[in-house]
Design a protein that fits this description.
The chain contains eleven helices and 22 strands. By secondary structure, it is α+β, with helices and mostly antiparallel strands. It has a domain of 201 residues: 3-Layer(bba) Sandwich (FAD/NAD(P)-binding domain). β1, α1 and β2 form a beta-alpha-beta unit.
Length: 398
């Protein structure tokens, strides 16, 4: 492995892969390297999400989330068509089941209108006609939403980047970043503990992005906390009980969208995720814990302030995580067809959520910059849907 590159991208998840591809298009004569600490791409958030192509229902008009998601929807669908990646634009129903949810639904409908999604307001009878196994008093129908395979998309981004000359190096972890007047020096941990140099570095390390910002010595006024999302695969008898994505009406104070039904591109149905504060950045199992991550989390003032603000919902999430019956109760609010025996094991995911020192959840994308580095500090959902416009924005910023 050579030691100098014009540009180094850290992270081979979907945002890093898209960025490397876009860099190659913009700078065909530059040497580009992608560093990934795992032995293959898309091992974490990219490969463990629900596969939904979001349309931009929930995001504040004018925010980067809304802008990137709306652009990303179209570009993701086009990319899937162009490179024969499986997808289905099945549409989404956001279903209200009680008076509180009914009161929150008009705001989502108006958001859809503002974000150019042409939603349909669905009454109880129309809902039953569209989805006989779903119960609710009303719903918003968003026909633009869909599902895909984000691992396949990431792999395709990387193949395109490699065809343009980019090199990918696996099993290499960044330990330290030092920026001088004319270059960036990156110390790594691998079989030979190499030191790499580049003119410009882009940090797309996902849940570890804040750590790399601090390792460079830059100011980072937030920390990324890990929230484990637990899913179930439904038994085969449930494969065809819905045609569309089925979502509950979310709490507008939280960035999580609730336990939803997703017809996957593989032909089966999943339900999830919940959102439980995990005991480590890669703590996928309930029993997983990493002492260094725990120390960082619980010595950070924002963690305690966040927990105090959302104590009730946090306790409820934890309770439902420990009890399949509690989880099932949330699903049965809108789908009574599903029974306890239908909840089969499925891989969990970790969501990287940036939290401010005051305990506020950062809802939008966050970038931290220096003269020769750009860090994607917060890339919340819908980052997978938005990967191409995020990558284009990064290229424009450097």
């Amino acid at each position: 492995m050579k030691k100098y590159f014009d540009i180094i991208v850290v992270g081979a998840g979907i945002v890093g892969a898209a960025t490397a591809w876009q860099l190659g298009l913009k700078y065909p004569n530059k040497s580009i390297a992608i560093l990934e600490k795992e032995g293959s791409p898309a091992n974490h958030q990219t490969g463990r999400n629900s596969g939904v192509i979001h349309a931009g229902v929930y995001y504040k008009p004018g925010s980067l989330k809304a802008k990137f998601c709306r652009q990303g929807l179209e570009e993701t669908l086009h990319f899937c068509e162009q490179y024969d990646i499986p997808y289905r634009q099945c549409g989404k129903l956001i279903v209200a089941t009680n008076a509180l949810e009914e009161s929150r639904l008009p705001a989502l409908y108006n958001n859809c209108m503002t974000n150019d999604l042409a939603p349909d307001w669905i009454d109880k009878d129309q809902l039953k006609s569209m989805e006989p196994n779903i119960s609710g008093s009303s719903a918003v129908h968003v026909k633009h939403s869909g599902i895909t395979d984000y691992v396949s998309i990431t792999q395709t981004f990387l193949k395109l980047a490699q065809a343009q000359g980019a090199q990918i190096f696996y099993n290499i972890q960044v330990q330290q970043i030092n920026e001088s007047t004319d270059k960036v020096i990156i110390e790594t941990t691998d079989s030979s503990n190499q030191t790499l140099e580049c003119d410009f570095m882009i940090n797309c390390a996902g849940i570890y992005a804040d750590e790399l910002i601090r390792r460079q010595g830059l100011n980072c006024d937030f920390s990324i906390l890990p929230f484990r999302g637990e899913y179930f695969r439904l038994s085969k008898r449930c494969d065809n009980i819905v045609n569309k994505l089925i979502y509950p009406v979310p709490d507008p104070e939280l960035p999580f969208l609730g336990v939803h039904l997703t017809p996957m591109v593989g032909g089966y149905l999943t339900v999830g995720p919940n959102a439980v504060l995990a005991l480590g950045k890669e703590a996928y199992r309930k029993t997983d814990a990493k002492p260094s991550d725990l120390y960082s989390m619980f010595t950070y003032s924002g963690t305690w302030k966040l927990m105090s603000k959302h104590l009730s919902s946090g306790i409820q999430e934890f309770r439902d995580s420990m009890s399949k019956r509690g989880y099932l109760k949330r699903v049965n609010k809108y789908c009574e067809f599903i029974q306890l025996d239908d909840l089969l094991p499925y891989r969990p995911g970790i969501r990287a959520q940036a939290v401010s020192q005051s305990g506020e959840l950062l809802h939008d994308f966050e970038f931290v910059k220096s003269a020769q580095t750009l860090h994607v500090g917060n890339a919340p959902s819908p980052a997978a849907t938005s990967a191409i416009p995020i990558a284009k924005s990064i290229v424009e910023q450097i």
